[in-house]
């Protein structure tokens, strides 16, 4: 697996590029801003994108969807419970004090336990409402990390920095704004619920293997075991 974690935009959303090293198939997850940066990374890795996946529809995660989709000509996947949030880009932009992004349609739906394939890597969608009604995570039970770039500071349990990453297998979770290193997603935005978020984390994420590598929607990569032991919201 080729993994590039690219912080984009003023809020530094982690746009995640996942690529299969053998087939060069790729997914772009949460293209929040800076479409040229995202497209340049795809070209640098010689990847061919098969889909854009949105973990949720907050503006900082969807700002570059239109230009990236136009350049790549692929489907955009979103859980239907977040479609109303996606459709209120104007209201979100007014709240943030910025211009709304160009519009482009959602062309495919995500569902809980939906299978996601990337070359030989098989993953699934985990519906994790709370930060937003249709928030999802993408989980791969086991991947071999061959190349990695981006905000990897803090990942432990045998995983080194991007330079000299060991070729070893890890469960992998891309979790949007559900869980962060030392924190959790906010729940005071449209459709948010603290109780629902904590239920999602405890019932859907904390049951995953301790060695699961977590790429959150903002900030550094972490390991589930570390969050179980040190994240104050999980104690």
Notes on the protein architecture:
It is a single chain. A hairpin with a 4-residue loop joins strand 1 (2-8) and strand 2 (13-19). The radius of gyration is 16 Å and the shape is globular. The chain has helices spanning 35-45, 59-62, 65-72, 83-87, 89-96, 194-205, 224-230; strands spanning 2-8, 13-19, 25-29, 48-53, 75-78, 108-109, 115-118, 121-127, 136-144, 147-149, 169-174, 179-180, 183-184, 213-215, 222-223. It has a 7-stranded mixed sheet with strand order 6-5-4-3-2-1-10, covered by helices on one side. A 6-stranded mixed sheet has the order 7-8-9-11-14-15. A two-stranded antiparallel ribbon has the order 12-13. Helix 1 (35-45) packs parallel to helix 3 (65-72). The model is unreliable at 160-164 (pLDDT under 50). It has 7 helices and 15 strands. With 235 residues, the protein is α/β, with parallel strands linked by helices. Helices cover 23% and strands 29% of the residues. Residues 12-218 form the Metallo-beta-lactamase domain. This is MBL fold metallo-hydrolase. Keywords: Hydrolase, Metal-binding, Zinc.
Which helices and strands, and how do they pair?
Elements (H helix, E strand, L loop, with lengths): L1 E7 L4 E7 L5 E5 L5 H11 L2 E6 L5 H4 L2 H8 L2 E4 L4 H5 L1 H8 L11 E2 L5 E4 L2 E7 L8 E9 L2 E3 L19 E6 L4 E2 L2 E2 L9 H12 L7 E3 L6 E2 H7 L5
């Amino acid at each position: 697996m080729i993994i590039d974690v690219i912080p984009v935009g003023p809020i530094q959303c982690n746009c995640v590029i996942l690529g299969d090293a053998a087939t060069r198939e790729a997914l772009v997850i949460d293209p929040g801003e800076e479409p040229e940066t995202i497209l340049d990374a795809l070209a640098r890795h010689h990847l061919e994108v098969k889909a854009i996946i949105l973990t949720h529809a907050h503006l900082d995660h969807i700002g570059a969807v239109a230009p990236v989709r136009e350049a790549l000509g692929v489907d955009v996947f979103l859980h239907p419970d977040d479609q109303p949030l996606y459709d209120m880009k104007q209201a979100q932009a007014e709240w943030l004090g910025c211009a709304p992004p160009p519009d482009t349609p959602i062309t495919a739906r995500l569902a809980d336990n939906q299978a996601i394939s990337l070359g030989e890597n098989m993953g699934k969608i985990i519906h994790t409402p709370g930060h937003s009604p249709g928030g999802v995570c993408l989980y791969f039970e086991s991947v071999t990390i061959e190349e990695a770039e981006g905000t990897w500071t803090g990942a432990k349990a045998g995983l080194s920095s991007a330079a000299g990453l060991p070729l070893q297998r890890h469960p992998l979770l891309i979790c949007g704004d559900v869980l962060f290193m030392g924190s959790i997603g906010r729940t005071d935005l449209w459709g948010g619920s603290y109780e629902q978020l904590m239920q999602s984390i405890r019932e859907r994420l904390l049951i995953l293997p301790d060695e699961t590598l977590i790429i959150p929607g903002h900030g550094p990569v972490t390991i589930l075991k570390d969050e179980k032991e040190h994240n104050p919201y999980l104690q």
